[in-house]
Amino acid sequence: MTDNGTQTASWQSCVIEEIVQQTPSIKSFFLRLSRPFAHIAGQHVDVRLTAPDGYSAMRSYSIASSAASSPIIELAVERLPDGEVSAYFHDIAIVGDEIELRGPLGGHFLWPEPAVDAVLLIAAGSGLVPLMAMIRHRRTQDPAVPTALLLSARTAEDVLFSEELHSVEINDAAFVLALAITREDPIRASDFGRRIDSAMVEEVLARLHRKPTQIFVCGSNDFVNIATEGALLAGVDPSIIKTERYGG
Amino acid sequence: MVTRGFTGRGSSGDQSGRIPPGQHLVENFPVLTAGPTPNVELADWKFTVKVGPKPVKVWNWSEFNALPKTKVTKDIHCVTSWSKLDTIWEGVLIEDILADAGLDRPTDFVLAHSYDDYSTNVPLADLLSGKAMVALKFAGQPITRDHGGPARLLVPHLYFWKSAKWVKALQFTTRDEAGFWELRGYHIYGDPWREQRYTDD
């Protein structure tokens, strides 16, 4: 065990307990662990699928559920156009199936402990997943931490965990939600109807009313580059920015 | 354990012997970085070799580019499970850097440092005998910022987090000192053929 909470994580089997279609391209999988673990919000698991001929495929998926110790974790998997493992999840997996995973993994992209002053979260599409674990953790453990989420999605129906995010925003004065809807007009006046840019990052930083002490960005490499450039242009210290880029 | 209904894309044909366990082949070149992408101007770029805290030699961009260059074609393997075959790099072999610095084997371990304060540890033996270089070109072109330009370490026989992007220094250490990811749950050595992904693998 290191000071960052990582520990030996051996392979275990788990059972798919429930599957929920969250958006047209993202499904949640609720997995019952055979050996439950406590994770830190932001961590991931490695999932391994094995074919009858012994061929196996491994991918990393962030945990969406909050860090409370529970025998069930939630993964939210986006179906990728050419996906090998995501296609299995979307087209083949059914409730009751068993898969192998190991975790929790990752000692960098983690909700800060102890809690900090203010946090800015920026994500695109399924990049929300590790940040959702943070938002859920914050709600029960650190509700006073001022937090803003800038979330980019193609259309309103592509916004992952939309209902839950809107409900957090309504019930929590210290939480700011700003959507960047790229392929249709946004419904709310406080949302943006364009792709992320520096000005947008700067405006969301202003809505936080505090200088953030930690910024988490998750999405494609291009998205992460635009988001971090925006934060740097707004005068943020690069050392407080943690990024996770998907691909591979 | 066989996963019901999973057949996968199957093995990668003739190339299966080149793909370590748990890895899959990609044609693109994914970018994974723990923080913002640094912007290092060539005019400001410097590369330092240190023994412990003591700098032994510092090169600027043109001095470093005057060192003997070597071209290699290598397969690379990222711990996130992608592998890319036949990547072409050009740069300065570590033994050529050390020769120019007048160093032989001051210690057995090296910590590489980067412009974004990233670091990673590699035993010296894994950097010599043509195994590693400070790469200046990828596929015949200057390395882009996203992929670690102006210069990155290339240690292709280890998981690719060892090939530090935006490298600025090699520091000889007396012990094998863990770097950034090695302190955050990843394996101290990182051999893809032994699947040394996480600390206790």
Automatic annotation (TrEMBL), chain B:
UniProt superkingdom: Bacteria
Coiled coil ranges: none
Domain called Oxidoreductase molybdopterin-binding: residue spans: 35-181
Region named Disordered: 1-21
InterPro entries: OxRdtase_Mopterin-bd_dom (IPR000572), OxRdtase_Mopterin-bd_sf (IPR036374)
Protein name (Swiss-Prot/TrEMBL): Oxidoreductase, molybdopterin binding
Protein species of origin: Sphingopyxis alaskensis (strain DSM 13593 / LMG 18877 / RB2256)
